[in-house]
Amino acid sequence: xxxxxxxxxxxxxxxxxxxxxxxxxxxxxxxxxxxxxxxxxxxxxxxxxxxxxxxxxxxxxxxxxxxxxxxxxxxxxxxxxxxxxxxxxxxxxxxxxxxxxxxxxxxxxxxxxxxxxxxxxxxxxxxxxxxxxxxxxxxxxxxxxxxxxxxxxxxxxxxxxxxxxxxxxxxxxxxxxxxxxxxxxxxxxxxxxxxxxxxxxxxxxxxxxxxxxxxxxxxxxxxxxxxxxxxxxxxxxxxxxxxxxxxxxxxxxxxxxxxxxx
Length: 262
Fold this sequence. Notes:
Oligomer: single chain
Helix content: 40-55%
CATH superfamily of the largest domain: Vaccinia Virus protein VP39
Radius of gyration: 21 Å
Strand order of the largest sheet: 1-2-6-3
CATH class of the largest domain: Alpha Beta
Largest sheet: 4 strands, mixed
Number of helices: 8
Number of domains: 2
CATH topology of the largest domain: Rossmann fold
Number of strands: 6
Order of helices and strands: EHEHHHHHHHEEEE
Shape: globular
């Protein structure tokens, strides 16, 4: 993906950070760490510590494994009693817990649920993932009112982005075509799944406040603390509208934690 603003520069975190030691005033990452392996996450946080000045803050937002797991058990218990609302909620919370860890295609079962079933469970899904659910509900309304018209995505890509996607798709077709000739259908499928699993969409790990605190401390940070979307040790953090937009938490399923570089 390419950033919307020209002031935001894309960078591959696997290449380290392009800053001199001790020159950065703050680091922020939202729903990034879970897409890295544990070792890559440790490497990235060590890079952040290197680049940060002494006393600077790092702020992380990740899906909260503890809260998701507790919600899953709570909904499961109610569903087992026959509570109809809980039965509907159970389908979603199971996907929220597992789907992005195991999916083999873009969007996975969660995407199918959002497109086809979420409108029957609107309040719960919106409460879990916030404004990210809104486009799916709007799409459902459009499909009912304008079913004769083709669907158009609500976002656009630059021509450069389209070209990049086209080249990548062509490369994948060539690779999978060769594998199909050499290894047959199963080989082709295995390569396609492997390419997807390393595309960055899947979760590689999950964190709760205990494990994320451990990780930050292992990478040399101190004063690790959990916070809400509305509070931060960073000066004027709320002015950036990163975790809160128009008074609402952008990703309510998040665990927010901050730490200090000594």
